């Protein structure tokens, strides 16, 4: 599919044009905030021992030991002279500023094994988790390595309050928290995708993953009330290093990966890192393969001790996109006429089964410190992806009759449909921030003001029609499939969002109050070129949050918070022809965090009351036509989340969680009032622990495992689904997906802990679903998906 402006020159113009707009906004923001900051507040930040640190995260120990070799430029030297003159006139002399901490050091400050004490996505200031009144979970690089996470869902398998379908569909990798989808961000900038071309990030390219649950619109604008998932890319480091890894396992898996980086020059003003991974494998479903190749070069330039800029780029290509089809409910969730449909059953057509995906990103993170009060940042990313997807999709079994006489025709013939789509997407995101750290009397302030901008330009061409059926007992996978001539969808869509926000972290002794407000403008122009229907959206919305947390000496920190969100609905209109309004979210939360003094452990517990309003829903009542849709719906989520993460003993790492969620449709006008939302479990629990032997003849040997429990859940919002059988008028209940309990395990060996000459070499075997439990992971009225069966991964890694 062709799209104007998608050549290399067009994409460069797109990037530069939007970057210029964003930079202009940043300059205006900086002038405004610096103009209104009180003079005495600036002075307080520059004088006395009570001044806050000049950066948001303390520098690593190794940086403090190294003499500062980064040279200042001419303007920086003048600035130093000015500072010296100012200091000479003060009674108290302040030490010279140290070099600005690099990005990689900042996002990983305080990380020890599975425990991260800071999270860049929670406040955009890398504030300590123990001083932030919000629910935050961080999956560190060490935890990813131990569990050998192969997908975004794998990353979050043991995270608190998280649920996803543990199936073979890797197109979207949807993840839910508190009953709503999590919005995915990469390095603090939103990842936007098309209907099928959702952006993809390989876990191997990441340093960590941060889950911030609850409304987060104050910092990120349009977002789900469930929260955000912020993925943090690997970045260049000052110390040279290297890693290569080979992996094999189930389904003929062959995977290789590398990660190298370090300084380019002796002064360490130029740093680099290149990370890459390639995979070729079959899948759980016959005739379906998976291939992906990713590379992510990154560079950091530090022209002075006050300035750093990191360029982050990546390219990904998936020649084979994996398995994703639903299967009939009869034979999966409920008994079929001829028994159970196998997990490896292929229901498509060999000549019409492709999913090819390409993705490229380019951006940068710029940071400059004016003095020990003001710091300015600009984060920018451009993303382009292209998708070509063709599939013969299975549906339900063929039926005959209606009402009380409805039955399956023969219980062996599946309806199928032809579907194809080509998608092309350009997105641009920029976040401009000005941070001021200062004291006003006994109050210590970290004020963050920002202007962000997002743009989404998308077009597609899709075809869809019923096609040949398939006999599951005698499947013919090379039938003559007619390609539809009529278009099913041909969208030309342009969306943009601009936001202004300000946040203040005010600290008085052990009390921290976090508050902020934001205002967003969201615009949309969607043209269905195959029908000529155009939908225009023009939405504006304020959001905010306020919270407080108190840190006791014994490590206990209780907190309360209130936050709001909004989420535009860009496609679709109401009966009166008006576009959908944005949905809104509102949450009250209270909790407690506990970090025992002198330990590497963190406990959290939270209760919350979350509502989403303006939900489009089917309504009923006197004089209302059947299937009438209106934006009067409301969904209420009330629940509890508890977690523990850390290392209670040397060599022992663990993560555990329990979550309770009562998620219901709470609008009396909704036809499903009082019912639970589909595919949302009420209870989830998990525990992972692994131990690495520290001494004796077994030094370096590691072992561990985990258990995951998911409560049963409804298949539809009506909570009462039944399906026909081959007997007329006889229906089977298919309202719930049964609960499941699955076990995982790992065995590892670090050769270098026992044999010095093998330092850096390690091996591991990971097994997910150890007992090969067969269970359904997701069901809708349209069909079900089997969960992944037993998967074995054997990995050999060498680091230097």
From TrEMBL:
This is TonB-dependent siderophore receptor. Keywords: Cell outer membrane, Ion transport, Iron, Iron transport, Membrane, Receptor, Signal, TonB box, Transmembrane, Transmembrane beta strand, Transport. GO terms for biological process: siderophore transport. CDD domains: ligand_gated_channel. Residues 301-770 form the TonB-dependent receptor-like beta-barrel domain. InterPro entries: Beta-barrel_TonB, Beta-barrel_TonB_sf, Plug_dom, Plug_dom_sf, TonB-dep_rcpt-like, TonB_sidphr_rcpt. Residues 59-91 have a biased composition (Low complexity). Residues 44-94 are annotated as: Disordered. PANTHER family: FERRICHROME IRON RECEPTOR-RELATED, FERRICHROME OUTER MEMBRANE TRANSPORTER_PHAGE RECEPTOR. The lineage of its organism: Bacteria, Pseudomonadati, Pseudomonadota, Alphaproteobacteria, Hyphomicrobiales. Residues 1-41 form the signal peptide. GO terms for molecular function: siderophore uptake transmembrane transporter activity; signaling receptor activity. GO terms for cellular component: cell outer membrane. It is found in: Cell outer membrane. Residues 129-228 form the TonB-dependent receptor plug domain. It is a multi-pass membrane protein. Belongs to the TonB-dependent receptor family.
């Amino acid at each position: 599919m062709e799209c104007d402006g998608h050549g290399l020159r067009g994409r460069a113009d797109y990037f530069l044009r939007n970057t210029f707009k964003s930079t202009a906004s940043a300059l205006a923001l900086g002038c405004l905030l610096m103009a209104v900051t009180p003079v005495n507040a600036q002075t307080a930040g520059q004088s006395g021992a009570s001044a806050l640190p000049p950066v948001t995260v303390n520098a690593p120990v190794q940086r403090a030991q190294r003499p500062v070799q980064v040279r200042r430029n001419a303007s920086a030297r003048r600035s130093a002279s000015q500072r010296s003159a100012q200091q000479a006139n003060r009674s108290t002399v302040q030490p010279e500023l140290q070099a600005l901490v690099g990005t990689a050091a900042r996002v990983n400050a305080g990380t020890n094994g599975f425990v991260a004490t800071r999270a860049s996505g929670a406040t955009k200031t890398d504030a300590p988790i123990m001083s932030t009144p919000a629910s935050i979970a961080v999956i560190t690089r060490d935890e990813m390595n131990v569990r050998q996470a192969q997908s975004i869902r794998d990353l979050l398998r043991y995270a608190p309050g998280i649920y996803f379908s543990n199936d073979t569909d890797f197109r979207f990798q949807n993840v839910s928290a508190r009953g709503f989808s999590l919005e995915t961000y990469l390095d603090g900038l939103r990842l936007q995708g098309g209907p099928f071309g959702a952006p993809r990030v390989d876990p191997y390219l990441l340093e960590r993953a941060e889950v911030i649950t609850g409304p987060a619109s104050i910092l990120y604008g349009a977002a789900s009330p469930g929260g955000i998932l912020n993925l943090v890319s690997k970045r260049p480091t000052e110390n040279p290093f290297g890693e290569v890894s080979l992996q094999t396992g189930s389904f003929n898996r062959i995977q290789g990966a590398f990660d190298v980086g370090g300084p380019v020059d002796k002064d360490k003003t130029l740093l680099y890192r290149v990370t890459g991974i390639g995979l070729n494998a079959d899948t759980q479903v016959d005739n379906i393969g998976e291939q992906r190749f990713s590379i992510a070069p990154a560079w950091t330039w530090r022209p002075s001790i006050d300035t750093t800029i990191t360029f982050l780029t990546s390219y990904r290509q998936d020649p084979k996109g994996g398995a994703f089809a639903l299967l009939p409910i009869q034979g999966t969730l409920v008994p079929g006429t001829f028994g159970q449909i196998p997990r490896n059953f292929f229901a498509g057509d060999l000549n019409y089964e492709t999913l090819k995906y390409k993705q490229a990103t380019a951006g940068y993170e710029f940071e400059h410190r004016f003095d020990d009060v003001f710091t300015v940042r600009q984060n920018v990313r451009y993303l382009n992806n292209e998708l070509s997807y063709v599939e013969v999709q299975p549906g339900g079994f063929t039926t005959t009759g209606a009402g009380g006489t409805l039955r399956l025709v023969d219980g062996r013939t599946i309806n199928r449909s032809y579907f194809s789509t080509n998608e092309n997407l350009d997105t641009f995101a920029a976040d401009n921030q000005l941070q001021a750290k200062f004291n006003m009397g006994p109050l210590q302030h970290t004020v963050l003001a920002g202007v962000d901008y997002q743009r989404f330009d998308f077009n597609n061409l899709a075809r869809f029609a019923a096609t040949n059926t398939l006999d599951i007992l005698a499947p013919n996978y090379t039938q003559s499939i007619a390609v539809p001539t009529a278009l099913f969808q041909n969208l030309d869509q342009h969306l943009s969002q601009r936001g202004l926000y300000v946040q203040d972290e005010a600290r008085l002794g052990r009390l921290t109050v976090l508050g902020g407000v934001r205002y967003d403008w969201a615009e949309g122009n969607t043209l269905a070129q195959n029908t000529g229907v155009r939908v225009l959206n023009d939405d504006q919305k304020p959001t905010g949050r306020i919270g407080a947390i108190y840190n006791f000496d014994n490590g206990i920190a209780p907190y309360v918070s209130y936050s709001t969100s909004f989420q535009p609905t860009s496609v679709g209109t109401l009966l009166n022809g008006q576009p959908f309004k944005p949905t809104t979210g509102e949450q009250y939360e209270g909790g407690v965090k506990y970090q025992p003094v002198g330990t590497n452990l963190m406990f959290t517990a939270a209760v919350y009351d979350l509502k989403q309003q303006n939900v489009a829903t089917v309504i009923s009542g006197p004089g209302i036509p059947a299937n009438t849709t209106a934006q009067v719906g409301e969904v209420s989520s009330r629940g509890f989340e508890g977690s523990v993460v850390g290392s209670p003993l040397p060599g022992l790492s663990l993560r555990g969680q329990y979550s309770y969620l009562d998620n219901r449709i709470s609008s009396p006008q909704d036809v499903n009032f009082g019912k639970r939302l589909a595919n949302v479990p009420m209870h989830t629990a998990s525990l992972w622990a692994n131990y690495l032997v520290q001494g004796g003849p077994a030094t370096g040997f590691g072992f561990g495992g985990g258990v995951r429990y998911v409560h049963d859940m409804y298949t539809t919002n009506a909570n009462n689904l039944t399906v026909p059988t081959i007997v007329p008028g006889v229906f089977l209940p298919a309202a719930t997906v049964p609960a499941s309990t699955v076990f995982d395990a790992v065995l590892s060996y670090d050769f270098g802990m026992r044999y010095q000459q093998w330092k850096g070499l390690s091996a591991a075997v990971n097994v997910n679903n150890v007992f090969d439990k067969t269970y359904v992971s997701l069901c809708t009225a349209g069909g079900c998906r089997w969960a992944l069966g037993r998967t074995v991964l054997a990995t050999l890694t060498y680091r230097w």
